[in-house]
Amino acid sequence: MKGGFRYEIDKCVSCLACVAACKLINGGSVPWRQVLTDNRKGYPGLPVHNLSLACNHCEDPACLNACPAAAYSIDPATGAVLLSEERCIGCNYCFWSCPFDAPQLNRRSGTIEKCHFCVERQENNIEPACTSACPTGALSFDKFESPEEQGGHLPVTGIKPRIRLNGSDRWPVKETGSGVDLIGMGSKISPWREWTLILFTYLTSGLFGLFFAAISSISFNGGIIYPVLTMVTLLIPVVHLGKPSRAWRALTNISKSELSREIVVLLIFAALSNISLLYGGAVLFSISFAVGLVLLVLVDNVYTSVDSRIDIKFHPGTVFLTGLLMASLFSGEYMPLIFISSLQVLLALRINFSGATGRKRYFTLAIFTLLMASGILFIMSNSLSSIVPSGVSFVSGVALIMAAQALNRIGFYFDFKPPGVTVMYHEKSNQPAVS
Amino acid sequence: MKQKVLTACPRNCYSTCSFYVETEDNRLTAIYPDPANRAVPEGPCIKGLSYIERAGSSSRITTPLLKDKNGGYSEISKEKALDLIAEKLSWYRDKYSPHSVLYYTGSGMSGLTNSIGYNFFSLYGGATTTYGNYCWPAGLEAVRATLGEVKHNVPWDIENAGTVVMWGKNPAETNIQEIAFISAAASRGAKIISVDPRRTPSADKADIHLSIKPGTDAALALAVCRIIIEKNRHNPEFIESYVSGYEDFKRSLSTDSEAAARITGLSAKAIEEFALMVSDGRPLTIIPGYGVQRYTNGGQTIRAILAINIITGNLGKPGSSFNYANLQGYVFDRYKEPLSYYPEIDVNPLFRRSVSIARLGEEMIAQTNPTLRMAFIERGNPLTQACDTNLVEKAFRNLEFIVAVDQFMNDTTSIADLILPAKNMFEQQDIISSYWSPYIFYRPAILTPPEGVMPETEIFYHLAKRLKIEFTSKDIPEPGAENTDRWLEERIRGYSEITVQTLQAGPVIAPGLQEIAFSDNEFRTAGGKINLRSDELSERWGVDPLPSYSDPFSKITGSGDYIFLTPNNRNRIHSQFGNLEIIKENEPEPLIEISAADAAKKNISDGDIIRIFNERGEVRAKVIVNFRIKEGCLSLPNGWWKMEGGGGNQLTHGSETDMGYGTAFLNCRVNIEKINTK
């Protein structure tokens, strides 16, 4: 019989015996288990709740499905979701995907670490270190073959965590549409830490735009710029990895991982587009262009499969929109450029006024609009008037628009909020009392 | 080879957990609960678990260390260390008197073999010792004089209570398994109340939290008694049969809820509601903490709180109890605490000179004829845990030679001239009991100590040999496990039917245990009744014969705008455990807790460095701003070493409690000043 965690919210007083026992027995470098506390500061009139969480060894694990390197497996005897550190490439995508923040990157080793359900102890009929250690009986180990879908104390995620939560108290849960958000809005993604990904996705849009410009223009065939940009675009995500030498493993889970698919199509597009620019031909052009469009969608899928809110699917900074915009810009097609820009502004306005993403950002929206509008004006002025020397105004216009799109792309990472628990509880602790 | 052995934790803690340890190659590899122990069936706390690190800690002292001229330490052999100590002991005895040596022991490790040190110093010719206790004597004396014995219902009886009051106690951090019984009571419909100047993790679990001004608990308790009697919710039959002094007590109750509200900082309405809740006829268990009696009015406070149980008849029945301390497991003592703390009762002419532990620094310095010149310190860290530690440090630095026996470098060992490594709890067997659960435990020798470590019994054996003292194996056993067992067998002979062998099989319930204390309604006071009025206390300590409230802060020297609290938290037992890596993960640095209201007034926010100070000293540390602590109070967890940036006792004043020779740590006021912003 397999087992799972049982957690009685009423009984937990955050004594941290579970966290300590795990660390003392398993010695992880990142916290494999953590106790979250809501209302840590003790705002008057509000209850304080604790929640001890580790990997819940889900029956349909988000981490396993997300992992591009096929580093995850399920132990048939215990149901434990196990991570092979030898296979892990340190891309952090499992951390993004897991609503419980169970897999965490060990920055020293460059690989993910997480709870292994004490499989060895279980094989010897000893329960996991954490459940064995709980002195109040709040956290215990239960035998159940298959976890039922949780409602009530845990939102429905479809991934079937092996945990049963009980208690009269209700853990504050928000259904956010992106999955689980156990305490409140926040983000476990830091845009500044993810700068390599911002750069990579931005370059991907640019690469697509440049390719389109090359195939639609008579005078420009990509020259040396295109292959160089291709190489840079391919190298940047490798730098992002905790284990760059294992980058090839990112192709090993195409059947499940959105990230694997993205990388495969990226490689195909890189090869096809360069070949077609070298040898020409309408058929190759068309195929490459189609693959490029698929690539733009797949890059966005990496994000929308984790945060599926409408705010993200229809974000003004998706790679799809950015890619199309750059294609219009580089190929001098102004009508689509104006159309996509207007759409971006409208989508940004929508998020600003109706989105559940967080605070209003009139300032950045204004800057973005201003940059885009002046950029477009500069470019248009190139053909309409002779006040400014034409080359200068064209280059300035392109630069302004590129800057606006970079801002937009960074904004995407601010709005992108994978489900999780880690960062939010700190945020909540600093919120003023509401009663 | 993996082995699994049952042992018990000897720390100065309510729970005294028994648990299984798994060892392999002389290393501790895992800890498992002992489900047969009804008080702690789910296992020990984070500190108990931390033995996995502590037993083999790389920062442990494993060889004798001698201070060199530059103030550093160099390793020396056991033989050399013993030679040097023997030489010094003999020099000071012959040149001055044995009383020029201070023998200081703390509560760091409990066990019967601790008396061997006193045997040694008796044979040596005596020593200056300490009297009193840092922790709990005021309350012990209050309960002893009122009920005749210090005992309470077994821990698991809390489940039967209809109302549970955690009065200044925070079991979620200091007695974790008790919170499980309180949760169980709550799930059966009990009301849980916390009276505490801080909203602790235990208060988080309570239905009602009364955030009381520190030191005013007696005023609240007496107002509650007055309301109960006024509303006719007391228990006249119980009072008639078992209580003496009730009429005097009733007449003395002058504080009404309005007056109590002004004193305690609570609302009169809350006080009245509280009074009705504790007198609703359902079984009432009051669990006072030891903090409420660490004031100069501490004994009187415990008497006042206990009066609620007495006038409502909540003693001697399931779910009805006053859980101050349960000494039913202390079966091997001639004098039980608190009497054993009183120099006039536990008379040993060789230890005729002793100094008050509350006023340690002051009294050490004051000793003349002979003045103190040497100290032998065991199981204690007085430079962290005494009151007014800067003065205590001065007193110790006045000495010529200090020997400290300890496992780690801490505030005290770092001023010692010679450090002897102490055994850990897994390296020598002993017998221990609990002041909460009713068990008596045998703690086996499981691990072999490192080469340079001698159990204290062996230290004294070798010192006695070197000093050419004549002794028997009853005084000091010869080295070796069998000899320790034989000594223990001899030590407990005649006290009860328990033998070392029966204890080796597992924890034993104390013989004669009353699961429900006082269920026979026998009160071993002079008159055979519960003394609401106690002339004995009045004569011995000069206190009001009736429980009464007096403002503790009117008595102390020194000034300051804030009351300074030093509560125990989950991470330490007094000054132990805080140095371990696993504990540092939770609490890497000392944090001073301040209320959001006070922080706003002083323009202080989370993470700022502040200075708290008074005429005795200062502590600089980061602040944590929250809504948990009462306005006008600051707190810094007890046990943080000064060398780690803590050392809250630099600020506390060395005064004794109103009774029992306890220590009034919480009679302390400080000022604050912001140093810099995060």
Major beta sheet summary of chain A: 3 strands, mixed
Named at the architecture level, the CATH assignment of the largest domain in chain B is 3-Layer(aba) Sandwich
The profile of the biggest β sheet of chain B is: 6 strands, mixed
How far the N terminus sits from the C terminus of chain B, by CA atoms, comes to 52 Å
Number of domains of chain A: 2
3D structure, described in words:
Chain A is mainly alpha-helical. Chain A has two domains: 193 residues, 2-Layer Sandwich (Alpha-Beta Plaits), CATH 3.30.70.20; 221 residues, Formate dehydrogenase/DMSO reductase domain (Formate dehydrogenase/DMSO reductase fold, Up-down Bundle), CATH 1.20.1630.10. Chain A contains 15 helices and eleven strands. In chain A, the strands form five sheets. Chain A has a three-stranded mixed β-sheet with strand order 8-1-9. In chain A, helix 6 runs antiparallel to helix 7 and helix 7 runs antiparallel to helix 8. The two termini of chain A are 45 Å apart. With 678 residues, chain B is of the alpha/beta class. Chain B folds into three domains: 193 residues, Rossmann fold; 218 residues, Dimethylsulfoxide Reductase, domain 2 (3-Layer(aba) Sandwich), CATH 3.40.228; 121 residues, Barwin-like endoglucanases. Chain B is built from 22 helices and 27 strands. Chain B has a six-stranded mixed β-sheet, with helices on one face. Chain B has a six-stranded mixed β-barrel with strand order 22-26-23-25-24-27. A five-stranded parallel β-sheet of chain B has the order 10-9-8-12-13. The model of chain B has no long low-confidence stretch (mean pLDDT 96). Classes of the chains: A mainly alpha (435), B alpha/beta (678). At the A-B interface, helix 1 and helix 5 of A face strand 3 and helix 7 of B.
